[in-house]
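Researcher: Going back to the complex we discussed earlier. I've cleaned up the inputs and rechecked each line, so this should be the final set. Can you rerun the prediction on the complete assembly and write out the structure?
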Amino acid sequence: MTRPDKLTFAWISLLVLSGATTIVAELVNLGFDPRVTGTLVLFLALMKARIILARYLGLAEAPSWRRGFNLALSLFCLLLLGLYLGPLL
Amino acid sequence: MTHTPTPSLLEELPGDLLIWVLIISELLVFGAGFTAFLSVRLTDPVGFAEAQTHLHRVGAAINTIVLISSGFLAALALKWRNATRRVAARLALIGAALLGVAFLVIKWIEYADKAAQGITYETHPFFMFYYLLTGFHAAHVIAGVLVLLLIAWRDSPENIETGAAFWHMVDLVWVLLFPVVYLLA
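Model: Rerun complete. Updated structure for the full complex:
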């Protein structure tokens, strides 16, 4: 069996992360703490964004730019998380 | 002994510099929209949570799968074009465009459902942001579908790289928009 190439692996990872996002979001209906599920949902979105930047947009070949984008995206997701958690704390 | 010069920061960036200027600009605009959305939510979290229950999460989740698969085809197209597999690259771009159309059909069904419920942008501030952010994104999807068809026709590797990068930006915005608007109750 041949191993999938990096692009195919990225696509499969995005599908898995999207499925995980849907499952985590539905956990609220089962009584899970929305602060935890919301944090996980944003973390999964960040992971998906990083994969798109690295593999679809090709920043894996440009490590300096990749680090810069990842840092900016991570800080932005932290801002979103803070705004989301504000009314829940 | 030959010495290979280290590429500058700008030379390291894949593709055309201007498409990256566009990508960063678009990310900043959508980022401001998401920040405004969650900031206004602070004033009425209960109203926002109630309004969100009217959204079609399943349709939006399917649209996520549709867009990331479309992005995969666009990325494959560039890989195949660089390997001089022109026909395969063109077919992948047409497939990516068709998935973009599928995204728009699902979005249209979602909007029609809201209209049937009598929900407009005036119903609640949540829906003003909902229509603004998803509508602006859908406009980019329409533009992206046209770009994908254009580069399937004028299929130089440079054109495909630039057009596909625009499409990936649309994809990138959606993976952030989906949780913020549809999931964070």
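Model: Worth noting: Residues 17-183 of chain B form a domain with the Four Helix Bundle (Hemerythrin (Met), subunit A) fold (CATH 1.20.120.80).
Researcher: Good, that matches what I expected from the previous run.
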